[in-house]
Amino acid sequence: MEFRFNEKEQAFYDEVDGFLQEMLPPDWASRPMYWPGGYGCGMMGMEDKESRDVLIRFRRKMVEKGWVTISWPEAYGGRSYTYMEQAIFDERTSYHRVPIIDVIASGIVGPTLLRVGTEEQKREWLPRIAAGEINMWLGYSEPNAGSDLAGIATTAVEDGDDYIINGQKVWSSQAHWGGYAWLIARTDPDAPKHKGISYFIVDNNTPGITIRPLINIHGLHEFNEVYFDHVRVPKKNLIGEKNKGFYYLMTALDFERVILVGIGGFKRVFEELVACVKKTERDGTPLGGYPAVRKKLAEIAIKIEIGYMLVWKTADMLDKGHSPSVEAAALKVVATELSRALAEAAMDIFGPYGLLEHGAEYAPFRGLAPVGYLDCISATIGAGTSEIQRNIIALRGLGLPVR
Hints:
By secondary structure, the protein is of the alpha+beta class.
């Protein structure tokens, strides 16, 4: 692994960075209230029409340039860029605080379909995702199946040319505006629980689907609970082989743990925090003059560099044809626990003022500290808890025995 970009990668880095600075308004970075790694406040601070218009134009331009699916083969609507270039693109867009566009469809579903889908499924779904025509949500977690996804109870039973799906999903991010569910269901109740699960793509407009909002700790509608009552799904929407869904899920989760990191967002928030510390005084002394503050910021800076190295290493492994299961788990732990450490550091540094929300007269750091403090916990849970990631590292990476 090289510790610097090659000529082609550096040129792409500069191209993306220049494009983003040209496309986004000069004050864009001061608008989003998104906390890196979190799941609960993705669009906070960008509810106004102007911001939404910017995002619509940006999305359209991304599709035109083929950057939504840059690492896919050209035959399916991609640009055949390397995974390293994909990682560069993700780092730059997160640094410039551009909300991830159709990340589930383009960053999770598409790459998984490329590996496990039939040729017919690739031809049907991938060009539509690349063209920005559809978006998706993840139908994984259930009331009694979160970390142990093999324990799902939602069923899919064959009936003629269809499967009939019954059950419930929960914590379903974006289900209220996603067009299709990327869903796992039990297709063989008599098989061992890991061997009786299958993957489906389900149209949200199918009769029998009910979506109910779950309001999160910020008072925002980001999550949902979704009910399936005798929902008919064509057999052609069964992804790959029947009863192999759990193994496909492991591949999809690897992509999710990499694509959702947004390591550039951590760097941007950290830079904003440091700038605020430099200009803020306590009892006549700049905050940066206190040893405890310097220590906290130095520790965060180190963790960000570790996160960056894991991002580049994971991309490098994908380009070499390796499966970065352990590395993706390590990256997920480092990044999401960095989200928590960064939020706690901000709250500690600003003391009681850190409780003031955005818009309050004396709120430091744009009021980001309480946003991050409330949202960072979700980072360590979504896409597999930190405990699950440590188990993956221990079992697959270190070869330790199962208890």
